[in-house]
Amino acid sequence: MKDNTKLVATGRPHNRPAHPVNMPVERASTILFPTYDDYLEGAKNITYGRLGVSTHRALEAAVTALEGGFETRLAPSGLQACTAAILAFVSAGDHILMTDSAYDPTRKFCDRFLERFGVETTFYDPLAKKSEIAALMRPATKVIFAESPGSLTFEVQDIPALAEAAHDGGAKLIVDNTWSGGYFCKPIALGADVSIQSATKYLIGHADCLLGTITSSDEQTASKIFYSLLQIGSNVSADDAFLALRGMRTLSTRLDRHQRNALDLAKWLGKRNEVDAVIHPALKSCPGHANWKRDFTGSSGLFSVVLKPVPLPALKTFFNAFKLFGIGFSWGGYESLAVHVHPEKDRSATRWTKEGSVVRFHAGLEDIDDLKIDLERAFNAMATALK
């Protein structure tokens, strides 16, 4: 099946003689089995509410089909999907390679948490070649972690090269695949061992709950992920799993609109005198664009611009003038967002040298002309503040 069909057909209760269109929400802690043999059989799939029931299994099946993996497990947030996946493969004395463009909470997990337990992290240039990654590998390196594109500066990484470097050194490649929604990019097909998403973003798509997904490429990898989540007591609400599964049904339609709006805005912003640079993976000027063109089938709604330097009071006026763009973290919902980000504060292997403020935009599902009017209003307010 093509992805559009998978998003509609997978994870639905087809095995019942008469069934609703959608998988119902099943809330449970204790699971009862009518016979001992049923108990033994059930233990292979559903045993206790914390480990998931039919609603969770349906969502996992749908994500697995979309990502092209062996098995998917759920986490209560995108961050825990990242942290549980890393913990599945490291012990005291081990070493990991983490992209320098990583989501800041993932970075802090390495610096502030893993370090306490004797796991060392080396941050690497997200545009590093295979030979440069191989030079950073150690006998104790267990994980290479990629995020493609990066959350703030959108470097598109060479996933096949990273996979080769990881496997040559006996390590696992984990890829944060949130930007593509699992739709525009398939890291497992490119050689990754684990593909992660913050389902909070595009899979759910409505900015109303938190969830993470971890998709493994094979049974051995999946087993380690399962026990990592089991041992840290991870739990996902059946209601949240239901919302994610419902959100997935419209993923392709929403992503198409996000893509068109974001590309239109990126090109429009690139012509503005107030803008120094636009960072969007689908534009040739974006770092790693050749990787995007090779490995992705499209682009989503998230990108950044670098404004020409202005004083902070004028920048505040720019943000305060918005009527449609909300000022807020996260992204992937139906609404447009804008937030001032600071990549210069979150680098160690590379330097961010742009002088102007970086604004990360998420293009929502509003009419594109209305979004441009909102941006025009903000630029005019900033110009007035500069006089």
Which short descriptors sum up this protein?
Aspartate Aminotransferase, domain 1; 7-stranded mixed β-sheet; 13 helices; 37% helix; globular
Blueprint (SSEs and pairs):
Layout: H1 3-9, H2 36-42, H3 54-67, E1 71-75, H4 78-87, E2 95-99, H5 104-113, E3 120-124, H6 130-136, E4 141-147, H7 159-168, E5 172-176, E6 194-198, E7 212-216, H8 219-231, H9 238-248, H10 251-270, E8 275-279, H11 289-295, E9 302-307, H12 312-320, E10 326-327, E11 337-341, E12 358-362, H13 368-386
Parallel strand pairs: 2-3, 2-4, 4-5, 5-6, 10-11
Antiparallel strand pairs: 1-7, 6-7, 8-9, 9-12, 11-12
Task: Explain what you see.
This protein is of the alpha/beta class and 387 residues long. It has 13 helices and 12 strands. The protein folds into 2 domains: 246 residues, 3-Layer(aba) Sandwich (Aspartate Aminotransferase, domain 2); 136 residues, Aspartate Aminotransferase, domain 1. The radius of gyration is 22 Å and the shape is globular. The relative contact order is 0.13.
Taken from the alpha-carbon principal axes, the silhouette is globular
Secondary-structure content class: alpha/beta
**SSE pattern, N- to C-terminal:** HHHEHEHEHEHEEEHHHEHEHEEEH
- CATH level-four homologous superfamily name of the largest domain: Type I PLP-dependent aspartate aminotransferase-like (Major domain)
Q: Please state how the strands of the largest beta sheet are arranged side by side.
A: 1-7-6-5-4-2-3
- Report the total helices: 13
Global Rg? 22 Å
Low-confidence stretches: none
Major sheet summary line? 7 strands, mixed
DSSP strand tally: 12
- How many angstroms does the end-to-end distance come to? 58 Å
CATH class of the largest domain: Alpha Beta
Question: Domains counted in the coordinates: how many?
Answer: 2
Strand content: 15-25%
- Percent helix, as a range, is 25-40%
Which fold name corresponds to the CATH topology of the largest domain?
Aspartate Aminotransferase, domain 2
Under the CATH scheme, which architecture of the largest domain would be assigned?
3-Layer(aba) Sandwich
Q: What average pLDDT do the residues reach? A: 95
